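Reviewers of the previous submission asked for a worked example of the structure-prediction workflow described in the proposal, so we include one complete record here. The input consisted solely of the amino acid sequence. No template or homolog information was supplied to the procedure at any stage.
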Amino acid sequence: MAKPIMVRYQGGVSSFEHSKIDRSKIYGRKVRLPLDPDGQPCERAQLSEDGALVLRSGMIGQGYFDGGGEWIPTGDLLGLDEQGEPLKRVPSTLGIPQEVEVIEPWEALDFQVRSVHLLKPDKLDSSLDEALSHGVIFRFLFNYGSDYHAETAILVRNDEGTFCLVGVPLLPSWAEPNNVPIYEEPSDLGDLDFEMF
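From that input alone, the workflow returned the following structure tokens.
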């Protein structure tokens, strides 16, 4: 079982068991199972770029082959920024209390949700419980596993339960009435006549 999501609000720490919600949990799912001529289930596989190796499902997540065909385990890979400098790994936030901040409802709307987790409280601080009951929305740092990029989580409650929405804030670009972007026709259309289509 995964470590709990833990948050700190006004000095009190709350801990939640969590389960990721996906479409199959809401609507159910059907699976097509391909069978071989003997009626046995087929396994997914793919060829390496040079066609020399058959890679079974799950093998690519364990590492990669470089241009010379040498195997590099995922743990040996290093993240680089735009300047080619090594990035620092961001540790998992699971099991570590994260400070929450109150946000306005519109801030939750300017948010690209990548996953939703249903939360079941193990230990719920009374001040956080009361705030959630009154519709207060919280934001905190979230990182499921150690990697190079932490995401943002929004903690919210409704009549169906308490949820953690994980994603990234959106940065909308606005157009002002006197500053509307102008679309210019591409200049490389040549002698193309659209009537011929």
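The chain has a mean pLDDT of 83. We consider this example representative of the routine output the project will generate in years two and three.
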